[in-house]
Amino acid sequence: MTVQELTISILGSSGGVAKATLSILNQSIKDVHDPLYSYINHSKIHLIDWKQRDMEYYKIFAPNLVDRLTLHQFDLRNKGA
Questions:
Q1: What is the tens place of the pLDDT at every residue in 13-27?
Q2: What highest taxon heads this organism's lineage (predicted)?
Q3: What is the pTM of this model?
Q4: How far apart are CA 10 and CA 79, in angstroms?
Q5: In CA terms, which of 10, 12, 23, 80 is 20 to 30 Å from 54?
Q6: Which residues are bridge partners to 48 per DSSP?
Q7: Which helix (H) or strand (E) holds 39?
Q8: Where would I find the beta strands (DSSP E) of the chain?
């Protein structure tokens, strides 16, 4: 069986929905019987926000995912031409 790495990108990563999603994934990675475990066990999670928080912020509610997280700061807002 080939293990495939899943890449997850979360836009607006410091917002409430992203925080809730990361909390769920954080719980799933602790339980090998969780249906999401097999997907996130070999995954990379990219957190993208225009005002990115530091890793310490994510350690509070997603400590089990920290080694899978990569932080990006992009301003994707349309500023007009």
A1: 889 999 999 999 999
A2: Bacteria
A3: 0.85
A4: 22
A5: 80
A6: 11, 72
A7: helix 37-40
A8: 6-11, 43-49, 69-73
